[in-house]
Structures are given as structure tokens and as C-alpha cells.
């Protein structure tokens, strides 16, 4: 009899644990609502996706999405707090509960998916190479034995580490440092998301995106802390609603087109209902 009571007590305790665990999972969206503030990790120096303008305000494609999510949560006066981050800290700020969602041009990879929960993608990207027009790198093999600039914590760093060990990687924390190093001639080329390189090369005409796509095309998506299912589901629903309204093409026209000009097809970058 005692054994049966003990077993029943263990089952009840287990059920209570699972219930409380599930409740904690479901609390992620409610916690944001109760706080009255959506905290979003964004870049400070990666135009046109996330950057700080001369007035000290965050601007860019990711920022437009963050503001739309804040408006959907809290109405027109909804508060969105931007937490500036670097590429290698995009997961850390989630794990440390410093932000609710990361919208820092975050490429989905299997390795990252094991650490965070990614939402519905809203953008396409691939690794590209930018190099001087007077010494263009048009073949990845030409980088063997040479120095290539990458940013820490990016897909470019992981791709070249894994697939091109003969390339010497010069790594930087900040985009501004990386591009300054390229302009100073400290490396043969720089690897980064092609969507960013198009904009940079347009403003630095002595350079060219000499290789536009390396490896597979990837997608950009929001990320939340592992297990924040309620918040993730809500974000996914909102992104699908925004896509049905062609929001991301509008955001492209506002934030990206001024950087890219008319030479880039927005359907090659943004993901809306019309081109999924």
C-alpha cells in the first residue's frame, strides 16, 4: 500500500513539474506584455539593417520590423527598447535575458538552431566577397595563402574556417573596424553577407562585390531564447500577417533602396507573401 501511495505521489509530483514547466514556457509572451516593453537586440553599425544615425536613433530594416512588432503588442505608443549588440553576442544577450528577441540580421544555421529558437524567416542572404576593383578576387581559390577579413561570430567566419583552412582569417568585433582594415590594405578581401556588401560597395566605388554568392543561400530570421515558445509563436503569426500586407517590400523601399539603388531586385532579398 505504501509503495502504491509513494508511486502515486511521484506521478503527481511529475505532473505538477510538467505543468509548471509548461506554464513557465507559456509565460514568455505574457512577461513582455506585463513589462510593457519589447527589448530587441540590433546592430549599431550594419547599414541598411541596423545602425545608429547621427541623432543617436536606431535605423534600418531590422528596426522597422522591431517597431512593427512593438506596435502590434502595445499599440501606437508601444515601447521598443533597442539593445545594441555585436555578431558574437547575439545568442548571449538572449541567454542572459537582456533581450526578448534578437533581430540583428541573424542567419539561420543548424549550429545556432541548437542554441536558440528561430522564427519565420523574413529575408534571404548569402556570403559574398568584396575586394578592390584594381585587384579583384573572382575565385575563392585565389584566397589560399592570403588574408581574408571576417567578423567574429558570423557565417563567413564559420564557413571559411570549415571549408577553406588555407585562408588566413583576420577577425574583427565591429563592422567598422573590419571595413577600415580592408580600406587600409590589411587583407586581400573581406567576406560578409552579400546584402550588406552591396550597400557598402555602392558607397565605396573603389571596391566591388567580386563574388556575390559563396556556398548556399541562407535566410534571416528572428531568434528567441530556447523554450520561449509562446513569444516565438506570436512573432511568427505577426510576421506572416506583415508578409501578407507586403510590409517587407515597403520596409525595403524605406531602408534598403536608398543604399542599394535600382540595380538590386528586392525579391532576391526580402521575403513577402508574393515571393515565398
Automatic annotation (TrEMBL):
Give a GO biological-process term.
amino acid transport
Question: Which InterPro entries does this chain map to?
Answer: Bact_solute-bind_prot3, SBP_3_CS, Solute-binding_3/MltF_N
State the GO CC annotations.
extracellular region; outer membrane-bounded periplasmic space
Solute-binding protein family 3/N-terminal domain sequence ranges: 37-258
Keywords, in A-Z order? Signal, Transport
Signal peptide boundaries: 1-24
Q: Look up the domain of life of the source.
A: Bacteria
Q: Which family does it belong to?
A: Belongs to the bacterial solute-binding protein 3 family.
User: What name has this protein been given in UniProt?
Assistant: ABC transporter glutamine-binding protein glnH
Q: What is the lineage of its organism?
A: Bacteria, Pseudomonadati, Pseudomonadota, Gammaproteobacteria, Cardiobacteriales
Amino acid at each position: 500500500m505504501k509503495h502504491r501511495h509513494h508511486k502515486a505521489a511521484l506521478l503527481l509530483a511529475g505532473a505538477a513539474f510538467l505543468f509548471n514547466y509548461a506554464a513557465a514556457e507559456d509565460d514568455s509572451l505574457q512577461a513582455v506584455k506585463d513589462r510593457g516593453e519589447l527589448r530587441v537586440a540590433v546592430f549599431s553599425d550594419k547599414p541598411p539593417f541596423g545602425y545608429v544615425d547621427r541623432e543617436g536613433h536606431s535605423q534600418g530594416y531590422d528596426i522597422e520590423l522591431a517597431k512593427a512588432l512593438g506596435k502590434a503588442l502595445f499599440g501606437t505608443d508601444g515601447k521598443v527598447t533597442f539593445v545594441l549588440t555585436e555578431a558574437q553576442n547575439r545568442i548571449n544577450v538572449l541567454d542572459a535575458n537582456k533581450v526578448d528577441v534578437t533581430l540583428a540580421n541573424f542567419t539561420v544555421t543548424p549550429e545556432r538552431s541548437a542554441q536558440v529558437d528561430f522564427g519565420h524567416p523574413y529575408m534571404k542572404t548569402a556570403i559574398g566577397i568584396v575586394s578592390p576593383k584594381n585587384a579583384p578576387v573572382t575565385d575563392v581559390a585565389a584566397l589560399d595563402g592570403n588574408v581574408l577579413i571576417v567578423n567574429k561570430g558570423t557565417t563567413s567566419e564559420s564557413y571559411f574556417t570549415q571549408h577553406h583552412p588555407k585562408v588566413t582569417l583576420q577577425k574583427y568585433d565591429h563592422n567598422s573596424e573590419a571595413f577600415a582594415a580592408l580600406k587600409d590594405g590589411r587583407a586581400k578581401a573581406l567576406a560578409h553577407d552579400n546584402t550588406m556588401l552591396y550597400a557598402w560597395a555602392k558607397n565605396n566605388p573603389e571596391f566591388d562585390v567580386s563574388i556575390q554568392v559563396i556556398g548556399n543561400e541562407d535566410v534571416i530570421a528572428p531568434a528567441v531564447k530556447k523554450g520561449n515558445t509562446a513569444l516565438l509563436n506570436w512573432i511568427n503569426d505577426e510576421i506572416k500577417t506583415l508578409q501578407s500586407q507586403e510590409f517587407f517590400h515597403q520596409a525595403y523601399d524605406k531602408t534598403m533602396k536608398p543604399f542599394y539603388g535600382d540595380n538590386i531586385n528586392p525579391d532576391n532579398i526580402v521575403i513577402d507573401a508574393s515571393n515565398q
